[in-house]
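During the reporting period the student researcher (J.K.) took over the structure-prediction task from the postdoctoral fellow and processed the backlog of single-chain submissions. One of the processed entries is reproduced below for the supervisory committee.
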Amino acid sequence: MFWRHFNSTDKKIFAAALAAVFAMLYLLYDDSLILPGDNGSNLNSIGKISITSNDVRRKVSRQFVWRSAKSSDKVHLGDSLFTGKDSSAEIKLDDGRQLTVQENSLIVFNNVGNQLNLDLRFGQLNGTIDGCLKVNVQGESVDICGDKSKLEIKSDGSVNVQEGSAKLSSAKGSKEIKAEPPKELAWTPVPKPTHFHTHQERPLILSWQSFPGALKYRTRLSKEKDFQSLAMDTTSKRNGLQTRRYPESGEYFVQVEAENEHKQVIAISSIEKISFVKLEAPEIIAPADKTTLTFKVNADGELIKPIQVDVQWKTLKETASQYKVEVSSTADFTDVIAQTEVADLHWTTPSLAVGTYFVHVQEINEAAGKENPWSLPVEFTVDTDRPAKLPAPKLLTKEIEYLGPSEQPITMEWSPVSEAKNYVVEISSKEDFSQIEVSTETDKTQWSLPSYHPGRSFFRVHAKTAKGTLGQFSDTGDLTVKVKRPVLLPVEPTVIFGKTPEDPGDPQEVNVGWSDLQIVDSYLLEISEQKDFTDKVEVLSKAVETKVTLPKPGQFFWRVKGLGTDGKPVTRFSDVGQMDYILKVPLAQPILIEPDHQTTLFFQGNMNPYIWVSWKPVRQATGYLLEVATDEEFNQKVFSTTVSEARYLIKTKMPQGPLFWRVQAQGEDSKISHWSDTRQMIVWTGSSPSRHRVPANKGSH
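J.K. obtained the following structure tokens:
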């Protein structure tokens, strides 16, 4: 590049020259640095800009740059003013005249001689002339004079007089132009003389005929017929007015004007007298808007009292009136579910279902008719509380210790609960009641059971409504069941006679029993020859009595304890009982000598029937028991005696016929022998033995 061939001095000179060029170019674009826009000290001011809208630009005399115009900017002779599309500017001249530069216009402010000249290059200029104004259009200077005349001047040279008249003078001559009077604008229909309103329901509606060429309509409302002060001033492009912005109550005058695109009034309506009466709607003070009213229910979810809402309102009137009240399920009151007419300022609805409702109140005003205003609707919701559980009963017997069996039952008591129909009692062996062992109902505040299984259990109570809704659980109660020790029944000694003196004795069954504990599942017996039960035999029994076997003669000890369903002890052992197995070793069996078996004995009628009986003596015998009977089983004994010798003379008279006799040896320590063999003897007295059958091989004595 050529830059590389420059030395440092050349580079500095080149950079300075380049900066000077750019500065000159900028000054050509914006001369405000050398000619400030607000510097009007050497310019002749003719007025200022009062209002601008959208794109309005101004070029100060002798400057090159167009700048955006602002309100309060001064206007000088030689200034130019431009308005773009949909833009306008109002200028207030120092002599009091006001001009409006319409859209797409360009005007230059200069003077001809000592008179202000408006050079309208293009566009349109509006204003009110009071005196004369020089305007340059199409290269021709025109003097326009008027007396508070409202004019419209276009760049093509046309002048339109909207109000009053104007005189135009130019090199071509002079002429006077007068404004055409506005046509009549017809009401459709004529406004009603009196309007009742609430600001809420019915809007104010005015209508008139459309007028050809009208761009917009201006509606004026005033308490004065000359419309010096306006209570309403609105414009509309349609041939009608609809508004809810009512003026204050009173009498007014109303008139409508039709304006064309040049803002010229081309038609005007008749002045009508109209009155406004504001109807004051009642104001609902209860329930509050968008409030929720909650109604209480019992534990079964049933309403304690019906859902009825008290509606209250207030009004500005001091005298009583009739009111109409409506309740609806929809905001537009298309579904009215309740309505009434009352003279009071309150009303209670009929029973309502749970849901959202709307209520409004209307004063019954015959003068206003159907237009009488409703109050603002109030929305309210009715709902019910969640059903409250019945409160927990309070246990009056929170800790129960029971010693059974007992004639007194286990009794649980608690305080009553309002609304409770029954009470549910639950018993469990687990504190968390994960396994319910007993669940029962009662309509009383106590419940008893005759007994319960031994050990620790837990119980609780909750109330129950008539419809079966359960309430809260009470605190957990503690039930401890203990069992008394079994009481042993006495056991008679078991006495067994040995068959022989060497007989060791056979095992013997003995019946044992004890008290019924009722609440145990089974019983455990322990039997031992030692009192400390170091060597024992165990017997399990479901009943309160059983048979035990004593294996040999001797002394035995026994005890019993109760067991639960799990086989674990629930009682202590009973006292120790004693069982005796006595084996009596027999003496030698006596051997009978006489009379022989089946001997027949005859006695004379006058003789004493003495009978000698004898047997061999038995060693260690201290005596003998002699028995005589008429039957072989000795159920019918006729004679029994104890003798000390091995013979005996029976002197007692015996019955005739067959007799049976036997002998038993007796010794010390209650030792006895087995009975001897049984022998038969036949005794006859008085008559000849030939009459009787005498067994063979028998002798006489």
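The committee noted the following: The chain has six domains: 35-178, 183-278, 284-384, 399-483, 494-584, 592-691.
J.K. will present the remaining backlog at the next meeting.
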